[in-house]
Write a structure and sequence with these properties.
Length: 834
């Protein structure tokens, strides 16, 4: 094996994908079978069980979706696209022609295999790009897709970083602040970069994994095409049926996408669907499209979708204390950025410095290939078809991207080579410079390469013996790009663990030191001073501790862990240990994150000195149930409504959360039918929960004061109902409440609140017993009794006590005996007693 630089980059996109090769130092897009720069990320399965990918598959999609409206059955589809939006989910796509399900990564693998088939040599190592805001499960799914495609060495790179590299290669200015605006077919990313002397360093990223061209297409469907059909046909039964409505929306999407693309260059477009049929309306009339859509029509529809991306950029700038005027360049990437509507919005709301110099469709693939040239990969010299037993194998070390005028290359003959010494001359591709012959041995030497400024430089490696006879070299050339140099990619999220916050009485998310958002990759994080909750016996399969790993947004520290994304539970079992670990013994954890954001955890057990290493292998998460999304939406609605009732929380503080909630509710019906739509809703709902969690945290003192006052009021009223039996306890409660209300310490307020809760429990015990007794008396026949006759006798006595002495000690005894006669689980009994 020898180490060489990669030379391939792949943009695995939601709508389109592209492959780029670094050829003689120049990034070159590999054309598809239809001689295009990009391949539609679309997979079709024919009746003869042939797999089609790309344009031919995309052409099938139109008829496939149209055909589904004939019987209003979408389950027999054999054409699939936009599956990148469900990467990381256990979503299955069923092909009736193949008679089997396909996962998102399997479909993505077919796209990768087809892309690589257009190249004239095998691709065993490559860079594949991912959205900057991809979660860990989505990243892991992309890795799996690469493996399924036969890629032996794959590294992942965030898309906006790739785009910045492509732009930086030909940028007029090598200093300043850049904002990459990457609006793709299914995702949106924004990346803020500092550029100094051509060195690019990512400062911060933001984005939305479910915002892209697909959202624009369905907005056009829902607000232009379906209203047209409603005005011209009777389709109430289709609109009222969720399945039929979604099938119709899918069939119309082709025309929406066509209109969107054409109106990036034209003022109006004529939409007719004479070649397709969309079933019949309620009166058996064939549905057809025949309308003109203008630039103004589409502007009203797409503006709200684009505005979300613009708002993300504005917040990104705001949290970095920047304004749009601070930007030297706003770089547009992705097909939808061709829209004149979007470009006008960006110039009006962010900066006039909108840059359109790079091809928005291929920039990411080009940048990926440029980045590939910086990454080492192992190559099997023996299996290379270009190598013979007379080829000299070299080991080289050099920086493939630089802003210096020259680069030093460390070169030596590989120890497995039959050659022990050879003369080497490095010749630049313009033939205007060469290094001159230098004797190289297995010990190696350093050669200096002079570079042409602000462009790729390729150097042929010429090998000669002492007599001047030439030999082939492996590698045969090296490439060094001058003028731009990428710094490290950065973590898009905080990576941390769930810990119990006794002070705030909740389980919270705490980032691991060293793994905070925007830390350069690779990164290492450490958390000391954790303790095992119980003893673990070595060799036991039943003893274990669980360390939950989460990802959180930039403002997530200290928020409820459940509002963040659960990544993985690291489980340390007794069978992992060589020695038992005592109760409450200390552990330290270390998490290592590589450049592709794959993670390894090391758990050090201080009591035994043992260190356990665990790979964090993230599997696909389950698709979310629609009812869960609706329940969360209802919970957040109730929570905000309750907070609005508090005088100490201003409407201004809640305005942003209310705006986000309204957006979620407006999208709920249209997005809840798809798995990626539900993930989009879930992501936004979690962000709202975090927002209001932060608001509540800033008003802890007022919230605790209100709870204390309310609890004291309940204690006083209960005592009054019970005939002032607990006057002494009430006076104690009043003293505690007064101390709590004047004390400024949140911790002290919580202590006083717990004491008040104990008093409340003591006073209201008989009161609660009374209500439970009354409930059992009124609903006796609904309970399953172990001994119905004995239970009836006790209830008869209870009913007399409810009239004569409802709060007596005797009532408590009777109720205790009655509960024992109930034929229900302990959990059900506890639920009743609550």
């Amino acid at each position: 094996m020898t180490t060489i630089k990669m030379k391939y980059g792949i943009d695995l996109g939601t709508t389109n994908s592209a492959l780029c090769k670094l050829d003689n130092g120049v990034p070159t897009i590999i054309k598809t079978d239809t001689l295009k720069d990009t391949l539609p990320s679309c997979v079709a399965f024919t009746g003869k069980k042939v797999i089609k990918v790309g344009d031919s598959a995309f052409n099938n999609n139109r008829s496939d979706k149209s055909r589904a409206t004939k019987k209003w059955n979408g389950s027999s589809s054999n054409v699939f696209l936009e599956f990148k939006r469900t990467m990381g989910l256990d979503k299955k796509y069923y092909s009736s022609n193949m008679g089997r399900d396909y996962s998102s990564e399997e479909l993505s693998a077919e796209v990768l295999k087809t892309l690589m088939s257009f190249n004239n040599e095998k691709i065993s190592s490559t860079i594949i790009t991912i959205p900057a805001k991809f979660k860990t499960d989505q990243i892991a799914a992309t890795k799996r897709a690469a493996e399924l495609a036969g890629i032996e060495h794959c590294e992942l790179l965030q898309e906006p970083i790739a785009a910045a590299m492509a732009y930086g290669l030909n940028a007029e200015k090598s200093d300043g602040k850049w904002l990459v605006f990457d609006f793709g077919g299914g995702t949106f990313d924004a990346a803020l970069l500092n550029v100094e002397d051509g060195i690019l360093q990512v400062k911060d990223t933001e984005g939305d994994n479910y915002l892209g061209g697909k959202n624009l297409d369905y907005a056009i469907v829902d607000e232009i095409l379906i209203p047209y059909l409603q005005d011209n046909y009777s389709i109430d039964s289709i609109i009222d049926d969720d399945q039929k409505r979604n099938i119709l929306r899918d069939a119309l999407k082709f025309y929406a996408e066509y209109a969107k693309n054409q109106l990036s260059f034209k003022k109006e477009i004529d939409i007719t669907s004479q070649l397709d049929e969309f079933g019949t309306d309620d009166e058996d009339e064939e549905l057809e499209l025949d309308l003109i859509i203008t630039e103004e029509d589409i502007k009203d529809v797409v503006t709200p979708v684009f505005q979300k991306a613009v708002d993300i950029c504005r917040k990104l700038l705001e949290r970095n204390n920047l304004s749009g005027s601070s930007l030297d360049s706003l770089i547009l990437v992705g097909g939808p950025t061709r829209s004149p509507v979007l470009r006008e919005m960006l110039r009006n709301q962010i900066t006039e410095n909108v840059n359109t110099n790079i091809d928005p469709m291929t920039a990411i693939a080009v940048g990926a290939a440029l980045y590939a040239s910086t990454v080492d990969t192992d190559w099997d010299f023996a299996e290379s078809k270009d190598c013979t037993d007379k080829t000299v194998e070299f080991d080289l070390q050099y920086e493939s991207n630089t802003v210096d005028d020259s680069e030093f290359v460390a070169i030596k003959i590989n120890e497995n080579s039959q050659f022990k010494e050879i003369y080497v001359d490095l010749e630049r591709n313009d033939k205007a410079w060469s290094s001159g012959k230098t004797l190289i041995t297995t010990e190696g030497d350093v050669m200096e390469c002079r570079l042409l400024k602000n462009k790729p430089n390729s150097f042929k490696i010429r090998a000669y013996d002492a007599s001047g006879n030439s030999f082939d070299s492996f590698p045969a050339e090296i490439s060094i790009i001058h003028g731009t140099k990428i710094g490290s990619a950065v973590l898009p999220y905080n990576i941390g663990i769930e810990v119990n916050d006794e002070y705030n009485d909740k389980d919270v998310f705490i980032p691991i030191k060293g793994l905070e958002k925007n830390q350069p990759l690779p990164a290492v994080g450490v958390r000391n001073g954790l303790y095992v909750p119980h003893a673990i016996t070595a060799g036991s399969s039943s003893d274990s501790i669980i360390i939950p790993i989460y990802q959180g947004e930039y403002n997530s520290e200290g928020t409820n862990a459940i509002y963040n994304d659960h990544v993985f539970d690291v489980i340390i079992e007794g069978k992992d240990l060589s020695a038992s670990v005592p109760d409450k013994s200390q552990i330290d954890i270390t998490i290592k994150v590589d450049r592709s954001q794959m993670m390894i955890m090391e758990v050090q057990l201080l009591a035994t000195g043992e260190t356990i290493e665990k790979n964090i292998e993230v599997s696909s998460r389950k698709c979310i149930d629609s009812d869960h999304i609706r329940n969360l939406s209802s919970q957040i609605t109730t929570k905000i409504s309750e907070m609005k009732q508090n005088s100490y929380i201003s409407s201004r503080e809640l305005s942003d959360a209310e705006k986000k909630l309204n957006d979620v509710q407006n999208r709920l019906d249209s997005e809840i039918s798809s798995d990626d739509g539900k993930m989009h809703l879930l992501s936004d709902i979690r962000k709202i929960f975090i927002d209001i969690d932060k608001i509540a945290e800033s008003h802890q003192s007022e919230i605790l004061n209100e709870k204390i006052s309310q609890l004291l009021d309940k204690i006083e009223k209960c005592n009054e109902i019970l005939g002032s039996t607990y006057d002494q306890n009430v006076r104690q409660a009043q003293e505690l409440a007064n101390k709590a209300l004047i004390n400024t310490s949140i911790g002290k307020k919580r202590e006083y609140l717990k004491e008040l809760e104990n008093i409340h429990t003591k006073i209201t015990f008989k009161f609660q017993t009374y209500h439970i007794a009354k409930h059992i008396s009124e609903n006796f026949d609904t309970f399953n009794w172990k001994d119905r006759q004995a239970a009836r006798a006790i209830v008869n006595r209870v009913e007399m006590l409810l009239i004569e002495s409802p709060f007596s000690d005797e009532m408590i005894v009777y109720m205790q005996n009655l509960v024992k006669l109930m034929n229900m689980s302990e959990a059900e009994k506890l639920k009743l007693l609550r």
